[in-house]
Design brief:
Blueprint (H helix, E strand, L loop, with lengths): L6 E2 L10 H7 L1 E2 L1 H14 L4 E8 L8 E8 L2 E5 L10 E7 L27
Parallel strand pairs: 1-2
Antiparallel strand pairs: 3-4, 3-6, 4-5
Helix pairs in contact: 1-2
């Protein structure tokens, strides 16, 4: 029997769930995909970290979480969702996990008035 693919959930956030839950359920948002890939790479002894990027081809255009894997003496951006290629990503930040590269940390009440992101080839 073949492996079941992951289902990308673009509208739902899975806060408070660990990597094993997303791996077992085979679903999640880009951050969850990145955490599963990072966990598997680290389990295999390959250094890995999370990166926040802007990327061509990602819909909706927004911050996108990918894994950064250290192979052949250099770091490589790897999008586990398959939406973006390494050469089409602009790295914003890197860290051990998503908490290190969050774009916003809020204490108290916050209201989002709007957001606009446009990613285009140079």
């Amino acid at each position: 029997m073949g492996a079941q693919p992951f289902a990308l959930c673009t509208r739902r956030q899975h806060l408070g769930h660990d990597c094993s839950r997303h791996f077992i359920r085979r679903e999640g948002v880009c951050r969850d995909y990145a955490h599963v890939m990072i966990t598997l790479a680290r389990a295999a002894g390959v250094p890995a970290r999370i990166a926040s990027v802007y990327a061509l081809g990602v819909e909706p255009q927004d911050f996108h979480a990918v894994a950064e894997i250290f192979l052949g003496g250099e770091w490589h951006l790897v999008d586990a969702t398959g939406m973006a290629e390494e050469g089409a990503m602009a790295k914003i930040g890197v860290g051990r996990d998503a908490a290190d590269v969050s774009f916003l940390t809020v204490f108290g009440t916050a209201v989002m008035n709007g957001q606009s992101v446009k990613v285009a080839a140079a």
